[in-house]
Amino acid sequence: MKFSLTSGLLAALAGLSSAASLTQVSNFGSNPSGARMYIYVPDRLASNPAIVTAVHYCTGTANAFYTGTPYARLADQHGFIVIYPESPNSGGCWDVSSQAAYTRNSGSNSHAIATMVNWAISQYGADRDRIFLAGTSSGAMMTNVLAATYPDLFKAASAYAGVPAGCFSTNSVAGWNSTCANGQSITTQEHWAQVAKNMYPGYDGPRPRMMIYHGSADSTIYPRNFNETMKQWAGVFGYTYGSPQQTLNNNPAAPYTKYVYGANLVGVYGTGVTHDIPVNGAHDMEWFGITGQPAASSSPAPVASSTTLATSTRAATSAAVTPTQPSGCTAARWAQCGGQGFSGCTVCASPYKCTFSNNWYSQCL
Length: 365
Ligand SMILES: *[C@@H]1O[C@H](CO)[C@@H](O)[C@H](O)[C@H]1NC(C)=O
Ligand SMILES: *[C@@H]1O[C@H](CO)[C@@H](O)[C@H](O)[C@H]1NC(C)=O
Description:
One of its GO terms (biological process) is xylan catabolic process. Esterase involved in the hydrolysis of xylan, a major structural heterogeneous polysaccharide found in plant biomass representing the second most abundant polysaccharide in the biosphere, after cellulose. The chain is of the alpha/beta class. The chain contains 11 helices and 13 strands. It is globular and about 55 Å long. Residues 1-8, 10-16 and 294-325 have low confidence and may be disordered. Bound molecules: 2-acetamido-2-deoxy-beta-D-glucopyranose (NAG) (2 copies).
C-alpha cells in the first residue's frame, strides 16, 4: 500500500515536471480556409528559438502527428517550438491541389500555415534563420508546396512520401489527382522547376534546403514521385537530376540510400519501404542544423558521415565508422539512447528507461 502510494506520487511529480502540452491557438491571424493551429512549446524553451512546422498526413490530426512523430520529444531536448497545423478539409487532407494553394497570400491552407509560422515568430521571438518544415504524405505534399510558395519563410524542409509542388493539381480544394499519385506525372527537371518557381514569380532569394524521403514499395503515392520531386528541386537549385554528387548506401541506415546533390538537396530512398514510412527525427535534426553540423556546408563530406554527426565525436569523419559504445556513460532524460547508427550512451540516467521510438531512434523517457 505504502509502496503504491509512493510510486503514484512519483508518477504525479514526474508528470508535473513537464507541464508543456499540445495547445490550440485560435487567433493567429487572417484564416479564411479555417485551418487549425496547434503549438507545442517545451518547458525549457531556448531563447530566440527555432521552429519546426510539422504537417500531418490525410486523416491525420495535429494530435496524431504530435503523438506519432518524434518532434515534440526532440523539442524538449533542443528547446525549439513545434507548430502542428490541422487540416479543416473533409478527409483531413491538405489543399495541395487548388490554384489558390499555389498562390501566396490567397487565403488557402498554405497561406494559413505561413500565417501560423509568422504568428509564432513574433509571439516567441523565434529565429527567422531557423524556421523549418516537415511533413508526411499529404503533409509532405504541403511541405513541397510551402517550400515553393513561401521560400523566403523556411530555411530547410524534410518531406516524407510526397509529390512535387504542383503535381497534385485538380483545380479544386483538397482534390485527389490519381495521375500524380500513381506516378504518371512525368516531365523534365526544367519543367518541374518552372512549376515551383511560378508559385512565387520573380523571386530569386534564398530557398529552403530540401530533403526528400520516399519508399520503393509505396503503393499510395507511387515511388516515381521521388524521382519527379528530385527533378523539381534539382532544377530549382541548378543541380543535374541524373548526376548526384554522392550515392551513399545504407545511409542514414539500411534500407535507405542517400543521394547528395549538394548543400541544398538530398534524397533518401528506402528499398522495400511502404507509404508507412517512419519519420527519422534525428536525421531531420541534422538536416535542419539543430544537431551536428548543418548539412548546408560547402563540402558534401558532413552529409556523408551522418551517423557520426549524430554524436559529438565528429573527429571520426569516415561514413563507415563502426558505432562504439562509450564505456560507463549514461544518457539524460529525453536524450537519444539507441537506434541504427547511433554510437552514444545506451544506458539512461535513473529512473528513465530507454524507450524504442523507431529503428533509428530510442529515447530516455
Ligand atoms: C493531375 O495533375 C497533372 C500534373 O501532375 C495534370 O496534368 C492533370 O491535368 C491533373 N489531373 C486532373 C484531373 O486535374
Ligand atoms: C527513381 O529513383 C530511384 C532511386 O534512385 C531509382 O532506383 C529508380 O530507378 C528511379 N526510377 C526511375 C523510373 O528512374
